[in-house]
Predict the structure.
Amino acid sequence: KAVVAANANSGARSKHCSGNPCSIERVVPMAGKPKTVDEYLAALSDDKRAALEALRKTIRAVAPKAEECINYGLAAFRLNGKNLVALGASAKHCAFYLMSGSTVEAHKDELKSYDTSKGTIRFQADKPLPVALVRKLVKARIAENDGQRKGARKP
């Protein structure tokens, strides 16, 4: 969803106010679901877009062969055909999705100052995750995926 602010000065119209300009901020659906990471990021507020662009840059530096995609409605990265990580934003926070509860658990001491749940780290746009931590987490996910891939092979 994208947030559209309608007010008397903008000339924007909303069905909420019977087509008359108003000052109520409305949440309206985007024209369609994003098909690319760029489209996903373009729909965000400037502060969230900047935070997630920085996260994206770090992920790309650590995993340059990872493919960007939209997965579960999030900006995501796949490596060797497997989900690696994803990033996203909600009304109240940004999130880094490790897509692995075991990676979050393995780094719980380093993540104790963040709001976490299984496979997810939430943070505020004005307090982004440290680059060194993101690099470490992405490397851990690559190693985890490689281990699963090797373990899945039959001798």
